[in-house]
Amino acid sequence: MALPVLNRGEKLNPIIELGYNGINFHHRCFLEKGFSSHGRIYQTRRLMPKCSLSSSRPASQPRFIQHKKEAFWFYRFLSIVYDHIINPGHWTKDMRDDALELVELNNRNLTVVDVGGGTGFTTLGIVKHVDAKNVTILDQSPHQLAKAKQKEPLKECKIIEGDAEDLPFPTDYADRYVLAGSIEDWPDPQRGIKEAYRVLKIGGTACIIGPVYPTFWLSRFFEDVWMLFPKEEKYIEWFKKDGFSNVKLKRICPKWCRGVRRHGLIMGCSVTGVKHCSGDSPLQLGPKAEDVKKPVNPLTFLLRLLLGVTATTYFALVPIYMWIKDKIVPKGMPI
Ligand SMILES: C[S@@+](CC[C@H](N)C(=O)[O-])C[C@H]1O[C@@H](n2cnc3c(N)ncnc32)[C@H](O)[C@@H]1O
């Protein structure tokens, strides 16, 4: 089988090669030539994706699922098979435990909100460390939540419908805010992360587990019509702008991908930040740009739907392709 050219950035990635996945972005020098983390010096050049197309678009031209109404319909149908096709290929139990390590779920009495909690896959990882009665699962999709309600370990969780941009929790409420695999649907991530900041208590931690930006052209094309896959530095920027400190990013990926990130990953990193001052985020934002009530031209919708379905199929196949390559290519060789 012909191997696509390996992205040099991936091959040289010191974090993956050294088996060290934690990057402490608290140090101001992230954007400078090198930065230190736990006594090691890394060249930040290598952290930057090779391709640098902007991953942000105007809210008036969202990607297919980067729109609340379209995301609602997407999960209406995907919820039927979600646990059987998304998690095994993109979001395994190992990855979940690895990603949640940064959240420091070190006390069973912590108050945790799992926003965009969907079918409760990530919540199952949370309730291993925290009493279920202290955990709230919030999602905008009743269909996804219906699946969470059926899971025995989640019986005592509070399960509510809601919007991540307008959380129904008081300010300074939770010890931990977790969001896994949902930021890609958000029309305005800066606003959603600002809301995460508001609902956390002083000293509370927000954790966003999300995708990574593809560098392979075809993957980038499908990402660009389908969902938001932010660059690593974009997550850091959003967290910092909203007032979080001690921002950290940890790379995750399915075992069979061998750290390869050129196709993007639906779950590719876990980013955390700590809230150090009580109250709302210091960031002031204008009114929301997204208008979910605006009528949609049926032809435009159909075209977007077709592209969205094609992109979904493409990203459902990527893990299978990588899994086969992992089986064929000898260990230690690039795939
Ligand atoms: C890919 S699923 C992830 C589900 C779950 N966190 C997991 O780990 O499997 C993304 C979820 O985010 C939800 N979502 C998308 N936008 C949202 C919003 N603005 N507010 C609340 N939930 C949202 C979707 O309904 C969907 O259930």
Task: Report on this structure.
This is MPBQ/MBSQ family SAM-binding methyltransferase profile domain-containing protein. Keywords: Membrane, Methyltransferase, S-adenosyl-L-methionine, Transferase, Transmembrane, Transmembrane helix. Residues 157-170 are annotated as: SAM motif II. Belongs to the class I-like SAM-binding methyltransferase superfamily. MPBQ/MBSQ MT family. GO terms for molecular function: 2-methyl-6-phytyl-1,4-benzoquinone methyltransferase activity. The protein is an alpha/beta fold. The protein has one domain (68-279, 296-323): 3-Layer(aba) Sandwich (Rossmann fold), CATH 3.40.50. 34% of the residues lie in helices and 18% in strands. It contains ten helices and ten strands. The protein has helices at 8-11, 14-17, 68-90, 93-100, 121-126, 142-149, 189-199, 217-226, 232-241, 298-328; strands spanning 22-24, 34-37, 40-43, 112-115, 135-139, 158-161, 174-180, 200-212, 245-251, 265-274. The strands form two sheets. Strands 1-9-10-8-7-4-5-6 form an eight-stranded mixed sheet, sandwiched between helices. A two-stranded antiparallel ribbon has the order 2-3. α5 (121-126) links the parallel β4 and β5. α3 crosses α6 (142-149) and α8 (217-226) packs antiparallel against α10 (298-328). The protein is globular. The protein starts with 7 loop residues before the first helix and ends in a 7-residue tail after the last helix. The structure holds S-adenosylmethionine. S-adenosylmethionine binds at residues 68, 71, 75, 91, 116-119, 121-122, 139-141, 144, 163-165, 180-182, 185-186.
